[in-house]
Structure formats: structure tokens, C-alpha cells
């Protein structure tokens, strides 16, 4: 805020900070509640804050720090003598203490050896009060922390504290996106500075040119989970280094590199500092949410080299064994890639220290595969090479990822690429409206998923319908206020905005569309035929209304043009009461939007949506999905959960594809969606779909299901690997030496001959056929390898679809280290059937037979030296 001096000249402060109130002793429990972000998803705690001053609670947007900073001292004194309020406060504090200290699912049922997991992400969406997120990646990370807290999983979150966060969006008169970066004052946030004694705890990175990058550590307590956020805005830094954590996803290429160095390298050092100061158990598993934090693996290798004297290969195995990498990117263009020269500068011995050879670091991120660029360092490639376990975020995204990264495993088909999938989920207590929760959920504890939706069976259709209308009206009221403010920002006067009071209708079918605005999400697909859309919006008996929100990246001119096109359509006086674009999409806008919508629209270009969780949040609030079968909707689609928009994949003409899919969308709305919504005063068939969605889809989309999957499928195996490799480091040394031996010997490995026994002239279903394979192992031993037979249905190109794998048994050994392996094939399906045999490395320390990227198959059937040794057989 500006003060005015002589002659109207503004007087600017040289520094700003927030002053927190001193609470009366009786109200210190309020400080306890504020400092744990559980209040962001716990309605009962929010009610306590609201009781402090209901009007102030609403005017501060539900921000308890602002609330306590602005509440009059007289009101605090009054509350300190209000026995009813003090009793309520005492119960809330006791409930929080029980939540953070009591046994949860992990302690009671997991039986896990995991002592602690460090979860790294460039952004975290916990609450709108802590604006450290831009979109789906951050919201997913926030939900991951919350669900881990609910389940009792011992997690430490690691991120950066951006002093300007992501941008606030507005529109100018022409409908063009404008960006503004409000200053984020840490003293005004529900976070605390980590202190080492009396001084702030810090980490330091050495940069090229003998520069130093210092960062202090802020801690946000997310239920049971501490979130560490590194902040470079310190006086000890030079101006350039001070700005490293200025904005999320902003700045030059080198600026982004410095952010990712601070997140990965500085993040590991911050975790070590936090554990030393607080006594928190050191993590056995490191989970990097996308490639932005991938440098954490290099820092762990440096630690092991410096502290334990390990060579690079041994340290690499130790670090890999306890690392999980999650990719969220469905296209190569979405991956961070840096010039090799920049990496060389920042990881030179002068900057990063001795013990980690720069050439080995460069190998980790090298695109040394067909079609790769030798001049760049690829963060996702590094993430995959530094993690023994990796996953995509839906089943379809797992397929896409295995294809996209198959160049790292050239000896294997895409189906064998060692990238699994765990489908994302959403944190129900954060996103489900209270009214929906009251109707449908039998318990408030979503850590216990059994029976939490049972309350829906006791609710009548009329109750559900009326509840949805109330939520629609609330969302409309919120939208009208936002649209009015948006038009004022665009230069309109109050006198010309009377029409805003009548936009949208609580009795009209309401469609929601809100997400980031890259081109593949196709914000404007609905505008392909404007006349057809207008007809749907203005239908005399079955109208629809659409509320749209979304931000384009500041550097994405194409995305901004899409927003402008949508805004200009929505500005048309003929339809502006039925379709609106609401600026500045964030958590505060999303929370009333999901329950206020009847249908959630999603129309990306398949298969470019990695997961897309907004439709999950809408479904938990009783909205039906209308979506292209992409991301999570592809695997869980059911015609009782909503409608699938047909995808015209395979059509290379993008305009024609958009036209086909848009008209399919119009047809679905006109002929199926709207008629079902307007079928009677209380549309029973619609309510039946709503019930089915919440009861059957609801348990699948929960973030607690997602985190359980991570624990059981990735964290526990990673902890086992980490523990075995860290015990004396002998296991890691042996594994590194074994890999070196296998790589050197592999060119000698071959399958000399394969034959079947008992096939017969006419192969019949159910027949057991003997198979024998002769393999030459060169300098390896039989214990070093596994001989597998792969069999199943084949296509017209003789490719085996969904192959069944089985290991053959060693039957006999011959001179020259040649061996015969035997087994059986069961002809368990009719039609074209094929098989092949391959040799793969085998070691107890491998997470997958494909880990080394090595496989040897039968000799080429056209090789004149082995004319009778076919690669397989089809019959």
C-alpha cells in the first residue's frame, strides 16, 4: 500500500512484512489450528475460525492468518471469556492432536518397512491461501500429501516457496489474458521458518564463478506431513540468486535450471537438515513428481561418494534402489531439456565438487537413442535412469509412456518397458461440498474407504435433486460476483452491468469446463459450429449453460488466443446469460464449481491427457462426465457414469477430426444428456446415474486409494531395495560389478536353436507342447540369465499381442558354455498363435528383467549360417 508525501508523491516502503497478533493465553489453541493446514480440508476446524468473526471470515476468503491478523483485540478478549467458544476450541485442538499422533491405516495395516518417504514436486496445491501451484501437477501433489496424512504414511514434502507464486489472471477489454504477480509474504502465510537454534536453517549451493545460492527453509504442516519449501529471497544472496524462487515456471532457461537445482540438490540437503534438527526419520525412499526434481539423484550420489567413499557405479545403485519417478507428460515437448553446456557449467568440479564425474552426469540425461538430440540434457530421461521404479498416472498414460520412452530399452517391445502406472486420485475432504458429504458419506474419515458412500442409500431422489439445486445456486452467485468484477477490470462501469444479475439459472443444466489451456485440451472445440452451440444454449425446453475457466501459460500466445476466442463468444449479448468465462481459475474458484455443475466436460486430443483429475472431483460431487476416453476416463468409463465422446483418432486432418468430435459432442448433449436431465420434475434416471457414479466410481478416484497403491506397489519394494543396498554397501558393489560384467559379456549371448515337440499336424486348443531352446552364454553363468518363452495371439505382422511369459528350466549343459532349456507351451487360445524365446539378465537386485535394456533372441531366420533356426513359429 502506498503512503502519500509532499506534493502527492507516493512514499514506498523499502521492506514489507506482516505482524501477527499476540493471542490471549486462553486462545493459543487458535494458533495451533492455524499452523496445521488440516483446517483446509476439515470443516469442523473451519467452523471454529468462522465463529471468531463470521463476517471477517467471509471477507478474508477463509484465510485464518488474515482473520486473526484483522480481528479486533476487543473481540479476542471477548472470546477469551466465552466458555462455549473455549470448549469448542479445546475439542478442535484435541481432535487435531489425535489426528496427527494416532495410528492410521499405515501404522495398523500396512506392515511396511518404510521409515520415511521424501516426495519432491515443483508445486503443491494445498489451499488457495498458500498459492504455490499452477495447475493439475500441483493439485495432485497437494492431494498426495493430504491423503498420505490421512493414511498415516510417513511422508516429507519438498518444494520451493515462490515469492510471486503463479500469476493472477484477468482480461482486458478485448478479452486478452493479462498476468499479474502478487507478492507472497511468508509472514502472512500459515507456515513457519525452520530454525537451527536461534538462526534460520539454510542450505547452500555453489554456482559457476564462485557464486553462492543460499536458501532458507519454510515448513508448512499438512496434517501429519511436513512440507519443506526452499526460499532464495535472502539478504545473503546477490540480486540474481535472490530471484531464483521468484515465480513458478518463469524466467530464462538458466533460471529454470537454477530452480531445479535448488529443488533437487537443495531439497535433499534441506531434508537432511530438517531430519537432524527435528529428529524425523531419514527417508529411505525418494519420490520425484515429474523430472523437475531429478537432480536429487545426483546429489544423493555425491553424498555417498563424499560421506561413504563409494565409487560412482556403487553410489548410483544405492540411489536408484530407493528412488521412484512419476512422469505426468504424454508428449516429449512437455519435458524440460537443457543445453549440455549449461549442465557442464553447473556440475563442474568447481561448482558441484569432486567425486561425481561430469561425463557420468551427462550420460544420465543424454538422448543417446534414435532420434535423440545430442546437444540437450533431458530431465525425464535422467529421472528414469536414476529411479529403479517408474510410473505413469493412468493405465493409458502408462501405455503412452512406455512407447514414448522405449528408445531407452531398444531390445524390448514397448509392452516390456519398465514403466508401470498408478492412476491419480483426488482428496475427497478437500473437494466434496459439505452438502454432498452430508447426503452420501457414512463417515468423514476417507482413510477408511469401506462403506463411506453408504449414506447415499438412505437419501431420496428429491433430497439429492434439491441439494444439487442449492449448490447450483451457490455456484451461480459466486460466478456472478466474479463476472461482475471481471467486467469492471475490463473497463465497464457499474451502470452497464445490470445484466450480470441474471446470468445463469439454477434450474438449467449446468456444464463445467475448467483446466489449463494448452492447445491439446481444446478449449474451443465447442465453438466449431457456433450456430449449433447457440441452439443448445437457447433451446426453448432443454437449454444448457456453460461455465468455463482456465489459464494459458504467460508465454503461450496460442493459448491466449483460444481464451480470447471463447471470451468473445461469451460476450455476445444473445448468449452471455448462458455461457461465461470466469478468470483466475484456482482452488477458491474450483471448490464451488465442481458441486455446482451437473456435467463435467473434457475434450482433449486423445491420448494427450495423462490423467486429468478434474472430472474425478466433479464425479464425487454428483456430476456426470462427458469426456473423450482419455486419461483416467478411458479405464473407468461406464455408461452409468456419464457419456464418452467418440474420438476420431487416426484422422490426420486436424480440422476434420475436430469437426467430427465437436459434432459428436453436440449430438450427445442434444439427444442424450439434456433429455435425461429434463425428464420430469425429479429426473429419476439422472439421479440413478448420479448414485451409481458416487457409489461405484467414488472409491476408485480417491487419493487414499492412489497413495495406498504407491505404498504397496512402489514405496515398499523401493524401501526393501534401499535397505538391502544401504546395509553395508556390499550388495550395491556386487550389483554394480555384476551389471558391468553382464554388459561386457552380452554381445556373446545368443539363442542358437529353438524347437517344439508334440505339436502335431493340426494344433488343437488345450494341447501342451514341449519347447527346447539352446543358448550360448559366453562368459556368463546360467545364474546370470533367464531364458523366457513368450507366446500368444499374433497379428498380421507376426507381432505377439499381450504375450504370456514363462521361464524355461535348465536341462543340460554342453561344452563351450552352451545350455539346453526346456518347458511347455499350452495352446490356450484359437486362431493365429506365435511364440519366441529370449535371454534376459537375471539378478535379485533388479526390479525388472528389462532394467539393463538387454535381451538376446533367436538368430535371424534369414541368416544363411542358421537357416533352420526360426525366430518363432505361427500356427
From TrEMBL:
Disordered as annotated region, ranges: 850-875
Matching PROSITE patterns: PHOSPHORYLASE
Gene3D superfamilies associated with the record: Glycogen Phosphorylase B (3.40.50.2000)
Organism, scientific name: Kribbella antiqua
One Pfam family here: DUF3417
Superkingdom of source: Bacteria
The protein's role, per its UniProt record: Phosphorylase is an important allosteric enzyme in carbohydrate metabolism. Enzymes from different sources differ in their regulatory mechanisms and in their natural substrates. However, all known phosphorylases share catalytic and structural properties.
Keyword Glycosyltransferase: yes
Alphabetized InterPro entries for the sequence: Agluc_phsphrylas, Glyco_trans_35, Glycogen/Maltodextrin_Phosph, Glycogen_phosphorylase_DUF3417, Pyridoxal_P_attach_site
Keywords: Allosteric enzyme, Carbohydrate metabolism, Glycosyltransferase, Pyridoxal phosphate, Transferase
Protein name, per record: glycogen phosphorylase
Domain DUF3417 positions: 23-130
Assigned EC number: 2.4.1.1
Protein family membership: Belongs to the glycogen phosphorylase family.
UniProt GO molecular function: glycogen phosphorylase activity; pyridoxal phosphate binding
Record keyword Transferase present: yes
Residues modified as N6-(pyridoxal phosphate)lysine: 617
Necessary cofactors: pyridoxal 5'-phosphate
GO BP annotations, alphabetical order: carbohydrate metabolic process
Reaction catalysis annotation: [(1->4)-alpha-D-glucosyl](n) + phosphate = [(1->4)-alpha-D-glucosyl](n-1) + alpha-D-glucose 1-phosphate
